[in-house]
Amino acid sequence: MAHRILIIDDEEDIRQVAAMSLETVAGWDVMMATSGANGIARAAVERPDAILLDVMMPGMDGPTTFQELQKNPETAGIPVVLLTAKVQAADKKRFSDLGVAGVLFKPFDPMTLAGQIAEAVGWKD
């Protein structure tokens, strides 16, 4: 059975490259959302196996979106992997302190993205 993943990112090109990568390389089912609020709503309805969440978005940023997901019993158990261009040590610590499953960095390699997500969330297939 294919994993189902929700990509929440405000940048269309990032969403498209990540989706194509995850569908083609790993055979996963991919859903997309363009904002934190839209992603929270989709996650509650779709119940994906994992969420790839951009850190820097207008309106509700990734960490705030993650905190909102944690407040809802419907979405609190979904592992979240942050995707960010911020690679400073202080940022890494702040993100890991949130309790996310993992943090991946932009630019990402489309050929290894699925493996990095799978490793972060503990999928063994």
From TrEMBL:
The modification 4-aspartylphosphate is found at D54. Pfam families: Response_reg. One of its GO terms (biological process) is phosphorelay signal transduction system. Residues 4-121 form the Response regulatory domain. Keywords: Phosphoprotein. SUPFAM superfamilies: CheY-like. CDD domains: REC_RR468-like (cd17552). The keyword Phosphoprotein applies. This is Response regulator.
